[in-house]
Amino acid sequence: MNLRLIADADMAFLRALYATTRADEMASTGWSQPAIDTFLGQQFDAQHRYYQEHYGDAEFSLICDRDRAIGRLYVFRGPSTFNLIDIALLPEWRQRGIGTSYLQALTREADEAGRAIRLFVEAGNPARRLYDRFGFVVTGSNHVYLQMRRDARSQRALEVSA
Q: CA-CA distance, 162 to 160, in Å (whole number)?
């Protein structure tokens, strides 16, 4: 597995990946497939534009298996807090420990830098259990997303918990 920065040529993959993250939700709408495709295309475009405008200095990366894109990892490293903007994998690559591996690396990096990590997740998203295991706690809610935070752990605290 490796990361590489996204490029304009990756937009079709990123749009398709985004659609997989909303598939269960869309299945319950009763909409036609063309209506779903149009809606998800608009939602992806709005999300992508928002991320680019509000997190201009973030690392927008593809998660790759050799040269094949299988997911995305978006991280903003701020002066006091890292924002895990998004991590998503294609369905056939989920539940293989890939997300866990990247989250381990990010939490290690944040701990070494003395920075907290913040993220937003839907309450029913299965990834919430992963965040709980990594010590993230709910710090807020807007009725759609939970805001979660994990404070940096000192080296001493890490040695005691090991």
A: 6
The span from the first CA to the last CA of the chain, in angstroms, equals 26
Q: What residues are paired with 119 via a beta bridge?
A: 84, 148
Instruction: Compute the distance between CA of residue 97 and CA of residue 93 in angstroms, rounded to an integer.
Output: 9
| The two three-digit tokens of residue 161, written as one number | 């918990």
pLDDT band at residue 155, thresholds of 50, 70 and 90?
A: low
What pTM, to 2 d.p., does this model score? 0.88
CATH number, domain containing residue 120: 3.40.630.30
What is the span of the domain harbouring residue 148? Answer: 2-161
User: Mean pLDDT for the chain?
Assistant: 91
Domain count, the chain: 1
DSSP state letter for 66: T
Compute CA distances 32 → 18, 19, 27, 35, 37, whole Å: 18, 14, 10, 5, 9
Among the listed residues 138, 83, 85, the one whose alpha carbon sits nearest the alpha carbon of residue 116 = 83
- Report pLDDT for 143: 82
Residue 9 above 60 pLDDT? yes
